[in-house]
Amino acid sequence: MRPLQITNRQARRLWLSAQGLAATPTGRLDLQATIRRLGFVQLDTIRVVARAHHHILWSRNQNYREHMLAPLYRRDRAVFEHFTHDASILPMDFLPMWARQFDRMRAHIHRSAWWKMLPEPAFRDRVRARIEAEGALSTRDFQTEAPERREMWYRAPHKMVLDYLWYAGDLATCHRRNFVKYYDLAERVFPAALREAEVAEADQIDWLCHAAIDRMGFGTTGEIRKFWEAVEVAEVKTWAAGADLVPLKVETAAGGSFAALGNLDIEARLAALEPATSRLRILNPFDPVIRDRNRLERLFGFDYRNEMFVPAGKRRWGYYVFPLLEGERFVGRIEARAERAEGVLRVLNFWPEPGVAWGAKRRAKLDAELARLARFAGAEAVVWQAGR
What we know:
The protein has helices at 8-18, 31-38, 52-60, 70-74, 99-111, 113-117, 121-134, 157-167, 186-189, 192-195, 201-216, 221-228, 233-242, 266-272, 288-291, 293-300, 360-376; strands spanning 4-6, 41-42, 79-83, 87-91, 171-177, 180-185, 246-251, 257-262, 280-282, 321-326, 329-339, 344-352, 381-384.
């Protein structure tokens, strides 16, 4: 079958549309639908302006506010937490398709050095028994001290056990309080019909791969695997060889091309594409459109690296740098920090992209978006420390 040709402009629109960034971020908010459309939302503890999960959701609809997410956990049981490429929230009805991920994470721990340091089964049973008897508990409800070790993955024994049981799906996050995770028995968090549903592993792989393409618009086998981080390279290749897919040839930002795959509705999607909103958006460093740096550079020609864990003297840009998306291209990056006690969103640094002219109109768009982001973060004013 001859590959379907997709221009770079079409590729950008497909990706942004699939990820909810093509439309103006206004109108009625359906938070569950937004999470479902994204597939997952990465959780992160860092709060420079707003925590990543809140910022990601706000970027899709700026009527979102931080207090709206918690009820989906605790009251509605509409989402659950687990590990994609990192800790993330996912729609609860995805649970039957996530059974293999619980097994994969358990097996991964059993093969790792972590397994040798995990407390004995009797200790693990005592941790679980406390939760069974007392209800949801956090790490703060246990008191054990970590030995003098320096491995990055080593923690106090009770924390290692809670993490292990959570990865394996024996415990589940029932809610968070001030971002502290509370664990409960999985059977008290996951609805019985979803927890007990049995889906063949091949069907889980098929769903995960098709769902990944649906949320990307198109993808290489590597990108499909990377989307959920819940399938292996060989599994994706085997799946792709037997699935009903459309072969694609996608143009890059540099004028080259690469082979990719699309679902059977790809031509209908292309026909329905419209230009992305011309609004300028300040995206989070953990936004799903940013996460795959290779895909980002290939489609947009935008070189972005997360430098939070890079020593300050070796950073090219800064600690927490926000990409600036205008329409269908990235036009710069900005470093900002919310200083809540002072009621200020402070702009620390600003870097325009090479070749992008920053006239009065574009600067006004950035000012408007900074004002909106400041309100979201609870700040009353934007203060430029960096030169404009």
